[in-house]
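Structure ticket #2291
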Amino acid sequence: MEEAEVPSLSNYGLQWCFKQLSKEEFQTFKELLNEKASELEAGSFPWVEVNNANIEHLASLLHEHYRGSLAWKISINIFEKMNLSALSEKARDEMKIYSSSSSFFAEISQVLEQDGATAAETKEQGDEDDKWYYKSYVMTKFAMKLDACYGFKNFTSEHPEMQTLLGAFKPDQNGFQPHTVVLHGEPGIGKSTLARRILLSWAQGEVYQDLFSYAFFLCAREIQQIRESTLAELISREWPDSPVPVMEIMSQPERLLFVVDGFDDLDFVFKDGDINLCEDWAEKQPMSILMYSLLKKVLLPESSLIITVRDAGIEKLKSIVMSPRYLLLEGISVEKRIQLLLQHIKNDHQKMQVLQSVVDNHLLFDKCQVSVVCSLICEALKLQEMSGKSPPPTCQTLTGLYATFVFHQLTPQDAFPRALSQEERVVLKGVCRLAVEGMWNMKSVFYGDDLGIHGLRKSELSALFHMNILLQDSHCERCYSFLHLSLQEFCAALYYVLVGLEREGDLYPLFIENIGSLTELKQFGISVHLLQMKRFLFGLMSKEVIKTLEALLGCPVPVVVKQKLLHWISLLGQQANSTAPLDFLDAFYCLFETQDEEFIRLALNSFQEVRLPMNRRMDLIVSSFCLPHCRYLRKIRMDVREILSRDELTEAWPMIPEGMQTKTFIDKSWENLCFVLSTHPNLQELDLSGSVLDEWAIKTLCVKLRQPTCKIQNLIFKGAQITLGLRHLWMTLLVNRNIKYLNLERTRLKNEDVGMACEALRHPNCLLESLRLDHCGLTHACCVVISQILMTSINLKSLSLAGNKVTDQGMKPLCDALKVSQCTLQRLILGNCGLTAADCQDLASSLISNLSLTHLDLSSNSLGSEGMNLLYRTIKLPNCGLQRLILNECNLDIASCGFLGFALVGNRRLTHLSLSMNPLEDAGVNLLCEVMMEPSCHLQDLELVKCNLTAACCKNLSLMISTSKRLRSLDLAANALRDEGIVALCQGLKQRKSSLRRLGLEACELTSGCCEVLSSALSCNQHLTSLNLIRNNFSPGGMMKLCSAFAHPTSNLQIIGLWKLQFPAQVRKMLEEVQLLKPHIIIDDGWYSFDGDDRYWWKN
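Resolution: structure written out below.
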C-alpha cells in the first residue's frame, strides 16, 4: 500500500467530527480556521477554498496540507474555542487512534516492500493488501462511534457475552459446530453495539483471525431501503473504494462472516413455498429474497452468520435459520442497577422506600437492565422527588414513571409554564399515531416518508429530538426511532386517549372492540408484542395521570376508551373456565397500572373464579391489590412456585442498604395476600395445587385461615409441596369450623403425618366432611390409623384413598371400620388401590352392615367376574344402601353383566352405574338392556364409555330407551356405533314414551350420513336436554340438518357438545344463529363440565 493512502484513514474521522456540527457551527469553524492563517505556515494551503468548502472537501484540505496529527490539533483547538468540549474530547480520542494506526501501517509497508517477491507472492501480497485496506476502513468506521480507546480487554471484562462469542463458532462437547450465532435480548440492551464491536475487534486482529478473512456488517435498517441488489453489490457498499476484489472475496465462502444487525427490521412477507430462493451471489434479487436466502443458508451456505434480534422476534427467526447457537445479552447487572438507583435518590429519608417501590415491581426493575431505560426511570424518580410527590404505598407503576418523564419532556420550556398549543397538540398526536402504526405492524424504525405521512416536518422533528422522544439514528441518518421501544409503546397507548379529543375515524381500532365473547377474543389473537402497550393504556386511565395530561393539553380529556377496557376485563370474568391463568394475571397487572380502585371494582364485578400463576413477588402484590375488589369471588386457584424461597437480589446483597432485607419484602407480600384471602367475605374455595410452600409460608397461611373473618370452606393442595407445614394445617381444622373439604392428593404423607391427621379429625371441634388422600403413598399402617378415624369421626362423610396400594393388611381394618355403627361415611373412593377379587369378600361383608354408605368407587381395580360374583350378592339385597356404583376399568365381561343384572333387579336404591372402559361388548350390553326394561330396575344413569360396542347392540339400546321409564342419562362415547347404529338408536328417541334427557355420542365415528335421521329424532323428542356430538365427522351439509333440529320449536336441547372451531365459517355462523334464536342453549366442547348432577362425584 502506498504511503499516500495511509492518511485517508484520518480523513474519515475528521469528516465525522464536522458532521456533528450544525450549519451555523460549521460556518463558524471555517471563520475561525481562516483567522488561524497568520499563526500557521500558509505554504501552499488554498485558503480561498475554505469559505465554499463542504465537509468532505474541508477535511481533505486539512488532511492533505497538514500531515500527521497537526490537522487534528488545529481542529481540536477550534472546537475548544467554540465551547464544544464533548466533540473536542472525541476528536482527541480519534487522534490517538490515528497515531496508533500510523505505526500499524508502517509495519505493513515494511512487509510489502521486501525484495525478491515471486509472482505468486506478489499476488498474495496484493490480496493481503486488500484485506488490510478493508480492515483499516472498518477500524475507522466503527472506532470513533464505539470509543476505541476503551480497549478490548476492558470491553470484554464488562461484557461477558463478548468472551462467549470468542468461542461461539467452535464445536461443543457433542461435536456440534454452528455456522449461525444469534444474539438476542431486550430492545436497547446493547445488541447492535456488541455487533459493531465484533467487526471492530476482528479488524483490530483480536478475534476470529483464524476463521474469517472478511467480515461484513449488514445493517437491516439501511438495506431495508434498497429495492433490489446482488450480494456482490451489497458487499461493495461496505467497501471503502473501488474496485472491489469480489472474486477474491467469494473464492473462499467458508472464510466469510456476515453480521446482520436488526433482524426485526427486515420485512419478510412471504413463506418458503411462495418464493424461489437465490443461490447465486451475482444474481440481482429483491432485498427480502436476497436476505432470506442468506439467512436460510441457500446463498453461500459455507459462510457464517451473527444475527441480532429482540427476544420477541426469536420465534420468527427460528423458522428461517439453520441449527443456530443462541447467546442471551442480559444487560446491566442487578448490583449495578441498584447502585444507579441509589445514586439518583437524593432524599435519604425516602431512599429505602423509593428503592423498594422499584425493586418490588420486577417488570420495572427488569427494564432497568437496559441502560437508556434505567436512565429514563432514574430521571422520572428525580422528577417525582423534585415535585414533592411521595413514593406509592405499594410499588411504582411503569405507566406512572413513563408519564412523569414524557409529560415533563413535552411541557414547553418557556419563561412561564403553559399548556401545549393547538399546533403542538397536532404534532403530539402525529407522533403517537406513528407509534401505534409501528406497534400494529411490528415496526420500530421509521423513514422520512413515514414521518411525512403523519405530518411530522423537520421543524417538529428538531424539537422532538431535543425532548429525547423520537431520535435520528446515529448510524443511518435517514432512519428514525423512539428513544426505546417501551417509549413507543407508551406513545402508542397515549394515541387511544388522544383520539377521544376528536370525533374522527380511528385508523387503528383497539383489539377489544366489537368482540362479544372470549372465544372471539382468542381467535383475534392478541400478539405478545402488544402486551405492554395494552398495560400502558390501562395505566393511562389513572386519575392522577389524566389530571397531569389535561394540564399539559390545556383541556379536559374524555376517556372514551375506558368502557372498552372494562368490557375486555369483564369477558374474562364471565367465562372463567375458558380463561387461561396467565390471562387472569395479565388482567390484574393491567388493573394495577391504573391505581384506580373504583375502576378496578367495576372491572372485576363479574369475577366469581380466578386462576393465577405466582412466580414473582410482583404477582403477589398485584393479586393482593386486585382480589379485594372481586366482590363476588367464590373460587381462587394459585400456583405458587418457590417464590418464597428464592432471593432474586442475592448477587446485589452488598449494595443493598443496611436494614433492607429482600426476604422481608417477599414475606410481607405473602402475608398481605394471605390476609386478603382470609378476609374476603364470599371466598369459599382456595386451591393451591402444585404450589411449593415452605413451613413458614404454610404457617403464615394457616394463621390467617384461623381468623374469624375467614369464610373458606374448601382447601385444595393437590400435588403441592407442603409436607413441612402440615401440622399447622391440622391445627387449623380445629379452629376454623367453616372448612369442610380438604384435598391433599399427591402429597407424600408419612405415618406420623397421618397420625396427626387422625388426632385432628377425631377431635369434636373438627367439622371436616370430605378428605382426599389420593396417591399419597399410604402404607398399611396408615390404613389402620384411617380406620380409627372412620370409627370415631361423626362428621367425615367422604373419603378418597385412590392410587394408594391398599394391601390385605390395610383393607381388612378399613372394612371392619365400615361395619361399626358409629361410622357415618357416605362416600368411599378406592380406585386404583390394587384390589383383587379376594378383597371383595371383606368389602361385601361390610356393605351388609353399613347403611350409611351410598357412593362407592372401585375403578381401575382388576376385580373381574369373580369379584362381581362376590359383590352382587350384597348389592342385590333390599337393605343395601348403595345408590351410585363406579366400576370403570375393572376387567368386567359378559359374565359380570349377568351378575350386575341380578343386582339391578333386586336393588331399588341403585340409580347410577358406570361401567366405562370394560370389554363388555355387544353381548354384555344386550344382557343389561333386558334387565333395564324390567319394571323392577330403578337405574337412571348408565355410563358405557369405551366398552367395545358396535351397531349390533343399538337395536336393544333403542328398545331400552323407549321402554325404560326411569333411564335419564346414557353415555355411549368412544364406541364404534357408526351411522347405522345411530339410525337404530333414533327409533327409540322418536318414541314419546322415551324419558331420556342426556345422551353421549362423542367419538362414535358418525358422519353426515346419519344427520337426517338424527335431526328428525331430535325434532320429535321433547325430553332430551343434553347431547354430546364432539369428535365426529360431520360435513357442512350434515351440520345444516342438525342445526335445523337444534332450532326446532319442539326441541328442548339446552346443552350441545360441539367444538365450533373445527367447522368452517358457514357452520359456525349457523350455530351462532341457533344461539341467537334460543339464547339459553350452550354449544361448547366442554360438555362434561356442564353437568349439574352429582354424576362425577368421585372426581371432585
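Closing remark: The mean pLDDT is 84.
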